[in-house]
Design a protein that fits this description.
The complex is a heterodimer of chains A (188) and B (437). Chain A is mainly alpha-helical. Chain A contains 7 helices and 2 strands, in the order αββαααααα. Chain A has helices spanning 2-38, 56-62, 65-98, 103-115, 118-128, 135-142, 153-187, and strands at residues 41-43, 50-52. In chain A, strands 1-2 form a two-stranded antiparallel sheet. Chain A starts with a helix and ends with a helix. Helix content of chain B is 50%, strand content 13%. Chain B contains 20 helices and 10 strands. With 437 residues, chain B is an alpha/beta fold. In chain B, helix 15 packs across helix 16 and helix 19 (393-408) packs antiparallel against helix 20 (414-435). Classes of the chains: A mainly alpha (188), B alpha/beta (437).
Chain lengths: 188, 437
């Protein structure tokens, strides 16, 4: 009796979990394993020959000061994007919540940027600040400020933060807004 | 019943003919990087070939810019889905050459297909780039250009300068830029492809090595050497001009071409192939000059090429290779080459095409279009001016771009930036050497 229950309790769950396990293995474990394995080799571009180099690729990467500097850049970028998009999202949500009339319109308008694909948004921002034909860079120049993000790293960083935050503000706004509205409903 | 038989017979007959006619046409694929006006001209060449005979059909596909086309070709090769012909820009040449077994060398392809093919018919300054040290041609030169100085004559006048003034040295160019700045011209100088013009060609033109081992031609154990005093002097000068607002840096590739064509930039260093676009768009009088140099050096030696060559990838049937050979031989015909040269501003890569263009009076009608050819072939080529053959050079150029931008923005001195670029680039060269032993 007990044996039959055990049999039943083992096969059915296994069967049900199997598809998920299979997918995880095929699309996650197998490729990651292969990536780790490949990281121990130095091949030529065409894959005609390959040499086992042990941990040399890691040594190469970690001794490159520019690779290490990219971690710092990532920290600056992620922090700036999270903080600015959360703060602005919250601020706008608070403002929209105080509205009695037209809240729906503002809400819709504020969500719009999120509907634009990140790639398109990126191109639009790049276009506006293009040193040759950009409107923003044109007006900045008229104000006496030289905008050239192809040359100036801090301007380039500012631009990518701006472009990334822009879409996220909408997303964060949505969450904050639904939270604040439900909160005010309880209080009223 | 009789009817039925007749129908079957005709179907069978039709199928047989259709079969043979399909079989007779061998189709080959060509992946390239040309869009816009150049893409149209390339398409014209392919159509001409397809109409000229009934054995082969060439199908061409654009795969993006130069780097993207190379990457697509390599990825496809690893998956066994590669085209017959791949366009590879000059920067990728060393990577292809080292990948023995990935391509059929041009001399071999032509020999196997029984095509009469004369590598001596090519201008040596061009074919030398794609030929082994023992004289075997590996790929077919397609589009080649060299940097020249473009002059906006209207802006020169506005700056109170004689538009025909001597601009042969960087010192004279500096004086012209001073005058332009004083007259309030916003962009006295700009450049496209700054590493290609101001380091790679600069080295050849001044007969100083860009890298050891004859710029990499003599071995994979080459090391970068573009941090000599003459190099540093030039990059420092560019940095100084950038700080003083005389040189505006617009980007790593050919972004500055837009500013020149729009009439904003007075002097621009750019490929001779900028011609097609400038001629079409410029609403001002423009002139073409030789690339400037520094007095008291070995300049002017000769400049080197940029552009691409066509590689026949391996693993294709004998019939397809024959088609590839026929098409490439077609492309090197004098008529085709001469037309390409005149339409685009790329060099005439065969001596016959250059001669034909000259005798047609094209150079007289379009002054300055012959300068690029003269500049490349003005002297006997030295080991510093034959070209560059460096592995991973696409990535090394990225490093150079980044370091030179540091000089223009005033963050680094030319000495520090070039030393650093050499050090970082050498690391990549050693890795390439190791992977291709």
């Amino acid at each position: 009796m007990e044996k039959r229950v055990f049999f039943k309790g083992w096969w059915l769950p296994a069967l049900l979990v199997a598809p998920q396990l299979l997918i995880s293995f095929v699309f996650f474990f197998y490729p990651s394993g292969q990536a780790i394995w490949n990281s121990l080799f130095l091949p030529d571009p065409f894959g005609l020959k390959t040499e086992f180099v042990g941990l040399d690729n890691f040594r190469f990467l970690l001794s490159d000061p520019y690779y290490l500097a990219s971690f710092k850049t990532t920290v600056i970028f992620s922090t700036a994007v999270s903080v600015s998009s959360m703060a602005l999202g919250l601020y706008l949500a608070a403002l929209a919540d105080r509205l009695i009339k037209g809240a729906g319109v503002y809400q819709t308008l504020l969500i719009w940027p999120y509907a634009i694909a990140p790639a398109i948004a990126g191109v639009l921002w790049l276009f506006m600040f293009n040193g040759n034909i950009g409107l923003a860079s044109y007006y900045l120049k008229a104000l006496g400020y030289e905008w050239n993000h192809t040359l100036k790293g801090d301007q380039a960083m500012f631009l990518v933060i701006l472009a990334s935050s822009w879409g996220r503000i909408s997303y964060n706004f949505l969450f904050f807004f639904s939270r604040t509205t439900s909160y005010s409903k309880i209080n009223h | 019943m009789k009817h039925l038989k007749a129908i079957f017979a005709s179907i069978a007959l039709f199928a047989m003919f259709a079969g043979t006619s399909l079989q007779a046409k061998v189709e080959i694929q060509w992946w390239h990087a040309f869009g816009g006006r150049l893409g149209e001209l390339l398409d014209e060449q392919v159509n001409k070939f397809n109409a000229s005979q009934n054995k082969y059909t060439v199908v061409h596909t654009r795969k993006g810019n130069y780097s993207e086309t190379l990457n697509a070709g390599i990825a496809a090769f690893r998956a066994g889905q590669h085209p017959n012909i791949l366009m590879v820009f000059e920067v990728g040449t060393a990577s292809l050459m080292a990948a023995k077994g990935a391509y059929v060398p041009m001399y071999q392809l032509m020999k196997d297909a029984g095509q009469s093919f004369n590598p001596k018919g090519f201008v040596s300054a061009v074919s030398g780039y794609y030929t082994t040290t023992d004289g075997k041609m590996l790929s077919m030169p397609y589009n080649s250009s060299t940097p020249v100085l473009w002059v906006n004559k209207d802006l020169m006048k506005k700056a109170g300068l004689d538009p025909e003034m001597d601009l042969s040295t960087w010192k004279r160019v500096g004086n012209a830029l001073d005058a332009a700045k004083a007259k309030g011209i916003d962009m006295p100088f700009c450049t496209c492809w700054h590493s290609w013009v101001h380091l790679e060609n600069f080295s050849a033109y001044h007969n100083i090595p860009f890298a050891t081992k004859a710029n990499g031609f003599a071995g994979l154990d080459t090391e970068l050497s573009f941090n000599s005093p003459v190099h540093i002097k030039h990059i420092q000068t560019l940095g100084k001009w950038a700080q003083e607002g005389k040189f505006k840096y617009m980007g790593r590739r050919n972004e500055a071409g837009k500013n020149f064509r729009a009439g904003e930039c007075m002097l621009m260093t750019e490929s001779s192939a900028g011609y097609a676009g400038i001629k079409k768009e410029a609403k001002f009088e423009f002139g073409i000059r030789h690339l400037p140099y520094y007095g008291g050096t070995e300049a002017p030696q000769n400049t080197i090429i940029g552009g691409s060559s066509l590689w026949a990838l391996s693993g294709k049937s004998k019939e397809e290779n024959k088609a590839t050979a026929a098409f490439l031989a077609f492309l090197s015909k004098t008529d085709i080459q001469a037309k390409w040269h005149q339409d685009t501003g790329y060099l005439g890569v065969t001596t016959a095409a250059a001669k034909k263009t000259k005798s047609s009076g094209f150079y007289k009608a379009n002054p300055g279009t012959d300068l690029a050819g003269i500049q490349m072939m003005r002297n006997k080529v030295t080991q510093n001016s034959k070209g560059l053959r460096l592995g991973s050079f696409d990535q090394i150029r990225g490093i150079i771009d980044e370091e030179m931008e540091g000089v223009y923005s005033g963050k680094k001195t030319a000495q520090v930036a070039l030393d650093s670029a050499v050090r970082r680039g050498n690391v990549l060269l050693r890795r390439f050497e190791r992977a291709n032993k």
